[in-house]
Amino acid sequence: MNVFFDNNISPFIACAIRELSKTEPSVRTVIHLRHRFPASTPDLEWISSLDGKWVILSIDRFTKNNDAERLALRQAGHTIFVLDRQWSGQTFWHQAERLVRWWPQILGQAQMAEGGFRVPWHHSKATKFQTLRL
């Protein structure tokens, strides 16, 4: 699986997840938007520029150009995990710690189903991802 971190998540967190994911045979690539595109690249442009299917992590609600972005995500077949609103108010270290906790469940969900999922801030092994309508 290929994993893409949107610009609203730290590239340092993406690099840490890439290193930790080297133990996961299902994960081939983990990149941050800034490693492939300029930081200011509009969502529609990078969504449609990714080759193949990707697992995308973002805090973005994809509400700018809502219909066009959601259509592009559906057409490309990307699976998206949107970090809940509470993530954006957290410090770098809290975000990193929490994403590492969620990572095994995110990978498991990405292998089982395509589509869009909301990742809550509060972590529990029993917590289910809420399905997003794309």
Structural class: alpha/beta
Helix content: 25-40%
Our count of helices gives 4
Order of neighbouring strands in the sheet with most strands = 2-1-3-4-5-6
Second-tier CATH architecture:
3-Layer(aba) Sandwich
- Parts with pLDDT < 50 across at least 5 consecutive residues: none
Beta content comes to 15-25%
**Terminal-residue CA separation:** 20 Å
Quote the average pLDDT: 91
Provide the CATH topology: Rossmann fold
The CATH class designation is Alpha Beta
Main beta sheet strand tally, sense and closure: 6 strands, mixed
Rg, rounded, reads 14 Å
Outline type: globular
Q: Mind sketching the topology for me?
A:
Blueprint: E1 2-5, H1 11-20, E2 29-32, H2 43-49, E3 55-58, H3 66-76, E4 79-83, H4 92-112, E5 116-119, E6 130-132
Parallel strand pairs: 1-2, 1-3, 3-4, 4-5
Antiparallel strand pairs: 5-6
Helix pairs in contact: 2-3
Kindly describe this structure:
It contains four helices and six strands. With 134 residues, the protein is an alpha/beta fold. It has a single domain, classed as Rossmann fold (3-Layer(aba) Sandwich). A six-stranded mixed beta sheet has the order 2-1-3-4-5-6. Helix 2 (43-49) packs parallel to helix 3 (66-76). The model has no long low-confidence stretch (mean pLDDT 91). Residues 1-84 form the VapC45 PIN like domain. InterPro entries: VapC45_PIN-like (IPR041375). It comes from Pannonibacter tanglangensis. This is VapC45 PIN like domain-containing protein.
